[in-house]
Design goal:
mainly beta, four-stranded antiparallel sheet, 5% helix
């Protein structure tokens, strides 16, 4: 069982940066792939980025490539999403997620989810 709590969302202007954090509690943190998803109003939830247990391998979606960076600090049981050069189309609720199976993190539905944090980017 893993509990995930996100923070760091807010209201910013286009071009600004934000860093989201997600603290995990529970056992075997390093056994999990961690990921960020987002859901904009009226749209389906979409995959943003994921990271393996050591932080050595990351995945992201094309729309955020070069702007967003996922990282993790296993000593702090925390995963981060550094978001630079934010655009209005990045406005969404951002969710942290975890699963032991990479396929579920990237292509289907991870088992564990946080409650979400709102990011609003104005033009």
């Amino acid at each position: 069982q893993v509990q995930l709590v996100e923070s760091g969302g807010g209201w910013v202007q286009a071009g600004d940066s934000l860093r989201l954090s997600c603290v995990a509690s529970g056992r075997s943190f390093t056994s999990y792939y961690l990921a960020w998803f987002r859901q904009a109003p009226g749209k389906e939830r979409e995959f943003v980025a994921a990271i393996n247990w050591s932080g050595s391998v990351t995945y992201d979606t094309e729309s955020v490539e070069g702007r967003f960076t996922i990282s993790r600090d296993n000593a702090k049981n925390t995963v981060y999403l550094q978001m630079n050069n934010l655009k209005p189309e990045d406005t969404a609720v951002y969710y942290c997620a975890a699963d032991m199976v990479l396929r579920k993190v990237r292509y289907t539905t991870p088992t564990y989810w946080g409650q979400g944090t709102q990011v609003t980017v104005s033009s």
